[in-house]
Amino acid sequence: MNEESTGQGRHVPLGSTIWAGLLGRCPACHKGKLYDGYLTLAPRCKVCGLDYDFADAGDGPAVFVILITGFIVVGAALLIEVFYQPPYWLHAILWGSLALILPLLLLRSFKGVLIALQFRHKAEEGKLVTGD
Ligand SMILES: [Zn+2]
After folding, report:
1. DSSP calls for the chain
2. How far, in Å, from the CA of 63 to the mean position of ligand 1?
């Protein structure tokens, strides 16, 4: 039930697709590299030749990363303040650096997952259907 065709005639589990996205692998073969840098997509997969022109995650990964980072940083800051009451300069160092590091760690993986899911579900822009 959790399996769907990749468009190449084989079925892969959803977890495998998400894992490939987290690792920055090709959404079709799960072996080739998706990125050609930190967040720049490679033109195509060097293993299976899949063209990455279809991939457009848009603002999706940034939204997820902002929400998750905000939840973690604000929640941790509140808990530490309630239990330990550290000086404000320590809050600024701790949460300021975490708010910078966490998005850098998460963004690449989230972008990979959204592109892998886009490929899996064949998501693309809507098109007008003409009478032809
Ligand atoms: Zn591939």
Report:
1. --EEE-SSS-EEEHHHHHHHHHTTB-TTTSSSBSBSSSSPBPSB-TTT--BGGG---TTHHHHHHHHHHHHHHHHHHHHHHHHH---HHHHHHHHHHHHHHHHHHHHHHHHHHHHHHHHHTT-----PPP--
2. 27
pLDDT of 25 > 60? The answer is yes
Collect residues with CB below 5 Å from ion ligand 1: 26, 28-29, 32, 45, 47-48, 50
pLDDT tens digits, 50-83: 999 988 878 889 999 999 999 999 999 999 999 9
pLDDT at residue 5, rounded to an integer? 45
Ligand 1: distance of its center to the CA of 34 in Å? 8
